[in-house]
Amino acid sequence: MSQLIRTLKSHIRDEVIKKGGWVNSHAHADRAFTMTPEKIKIYQNANLQQKWDLVDEVKRNSSVEDYYRRFSQAIELMISQGVTAFGTFVDIDQVCEDRAILAAHKAREVYKNDIILRFANQTLKGVIEPNARKWFDIGSEMVDMIGGLPYRDELDYGKGLEAMDILMDTAKSQGKMLHVHVDQFNNPKEKETEQLCDKAVEHGMQGRVVAIHGISIGAHPREYRQMLYKKMKAVDMMMIACPMAWIDSPRKDEVLPFHNALTPADEMIPEGITVAIGTDNICDYMVPLCEGDMWQELSLLSAGCRFTNLEEMANIASVNGRKVLGLI
């Protein structure tokens, strides 16, 4: 057989390897592989906010060893694809307590010669309610990066901005980067990325804050988006895109700027904003069809945004991931 013609996938993969290998910048490995055919109705019938509490079943019934098995399976899946660094949120709250993070640290020790692991604390219960705050404070001492979900406290108490203050104060006092889920619901009423920029300035956290998802940015008019990108650039805010996690956003009847439910990397990168990529949830209640395939994530982002700058695609999958994880 004559020599096969190289595909763009082969070219980009080789460039990623030259740049140090793939980086999965965002995941929830502690809950990976928890979806089963019997549980698919949870995904079909519940919205994301409801799933934040429905996963309590998994958390409550998981031992340290259960968590360790899931971490190991996710880590080995990453290693098999050539991932050299892996950032994952870990649930630490009043339901699972510290079982997941103990398993995470065990996994880091076992795989320390194979992959770099970085952990952030997931705050599905928020940081305002006293018991939730207690576990946030405990968890923040056990992770490499502070993690946040301010919409949980906005939903429950109307205190999303106060939650951002707590996240910023904690990250700054501990000298850690801050990774925050923002603008997840493809809704122009959401302006969490802009709020996060303002809070970064207020707390002197420029260059230390990473936004995750930013789906709702595309639902805003061009003028707002351009203003936001300038603000993000001014505070050196980085962004992590997780395409498979949000491509399933439900249809809506609202009249919005035409866009895909993807982080607008095609607009951010030319504005000098660092964009990295992650798998987010892998085969769990939130995203049952995500298989943790790094090429699938990158190709979906590229196709959905019509962004085919090959050099920047390789950067998204490698160098930019090391930046958002604080490795360079």
TrEMBL record:
Q: Which Gene Ontology MF annotations are present?
A: hydrolase activity, acting on carbon-nitrogen (but not peptide) bonds, in cyclic amidines
UniProt domain Amidohydrolase-related: residue ranges? 21-327
Q: Which InterPro entries does UniProt cross-reference here?
A: Amidohydro-rel, Metal_Hydrolase, Metallo-hydrolase_Enzymes
Record's NCBIfam families? PRK06886.1
Q: What is this protein called?
A: Amidohydrolase-related domain-containing protein
